[in-house]
Amino acid sequence: MIILDGVIYQAAGTVLRRSDDFLVPFASITQYREDAAFQIGKVAGLRDVVLACDPHRCSENLFFALRIDGLFDTIHARAVHPVPQGDRLLDAAKTELEFHFSNIEGTLVGLWSPAYSSSFSVPGYHFHFISKDRTKGGHLLNCAAQQLRASIQMVSEYDVRLPEAGSFLTTDLIRNPASDLAKAE
């Protein structure tokens, strides 16, 4: 799922605009307000994006939302197949599809989460890609580009909403999910 400019998209290689009510097991969402913008030069891989963004984070203890726009030489993305309700994240990750896009204009939507958030978020950077024409996208695995425009927002409030009914109330959550999150990433 990608939310960009207030619109919800379901990305699984191809993209569907969603306006109906549907359940998602987990989402990190912010009303994006750019705090600062910067340019990213030649990108040979996702590591170059990470290294370009790191100096613009003022703390290892806060969350940061990012938006990166540009023409990408390559995008390598993935999406998991929908799985039956109650299946674990690891089970969903086993059924992922991978996509390769070339010479494509679009946006990376990302969140950087601190290490201590591992039981309710994915620590470090987590990016999704959506094409400018909103027809292609998915969870970013890698990318390459010549020049990108990036912006960042510090997020100091984090609202966790939990289900008030259903299996969540009786599920044993004593086990730390951090290792499952890391494997699924």
Q: What's the oligomerization state?
A: single chain
Number of helices: 3
Approximate strand percentage: over 45%
- Terminal Cα span: 15 Å
H/E series: EEEHEHEEEH
| Structural class estimated from helices and strands | mainly beta
**Low-confidence spans: pLDDT under 50, at least 5 residues?**
none
Largest sheet: 7 strands, antiparallel
Could you estimate the helical fraction of the residues in percent? 10-25%
Global morphology:
globular
What's the total count of β strands? 7
Arithmetic mean of pLDDT: 87
Supply Rg. 17 Å
In short:
By secondary structure, the chain is mostly beta strands.
Question: Any overview of this molecule?
Answer:
With 185 residues, the protein is mainly beta. It is built from 3 helices and 7 strands; from the N terminus they run βββαβαβββα. It has helices at residues 46-53, 89-93, 178-184; strands spanning 2-4, 7-18, 36-40, 63-80, 96-113, 124-131, 136-155. Strands 1, 2, 3, 4, 5, 6 and 7 form a 7-stranded antiparallel sheet that branches. Strand 6 and strand 7 (136-155) form a beta hairpin. The longest helix has 8 residues, at 46-53. The protein starts with a strand and ends with a helix. The relative contact order is 0.26. The mean pLDDT is 87.
